[in-house]
Write a structure and sequence with these properties.
This is Si:dkey-4c23.5. This protein is mainly beta. The protein has one domain. Helices cover 11% and strands 31% of the residues. The chain has one helix and seven strands; from the N terminus they run βββββββα. The strands form two sheets. Strands 1, 2, 3, 4 and 5 form a five-stranded antiparallel β-sheet that branches. The radius of gyration is 15 Å and the shape is globular. The relative contact order is 0.20.
Length: 80
Amino acid sequence: LTDSTIYVWYFNNQTLDLPKNQNKHIIFNPVSSHHAGYYSCAVATPHCVNSSIKVLTVKSGGRSITILNIIKLIVLLLIP
């Protein structure tokens, strides 16, 4: 990959809108519980190479806070 490679980042299956200079990395400074969730990225090429999904867990006050998509799944299963 070259320096001009364009990366597309996803958070909980939604595209993240990042500054051009933060294209290769995601930086949270400071990190907080709303950053917890599922992250993946893709390389914008004709072949669109996708990464595997990784989970970011944020610990706050000794408690583990993880945003999961279980609620979405339950809602989808309940809709006929």
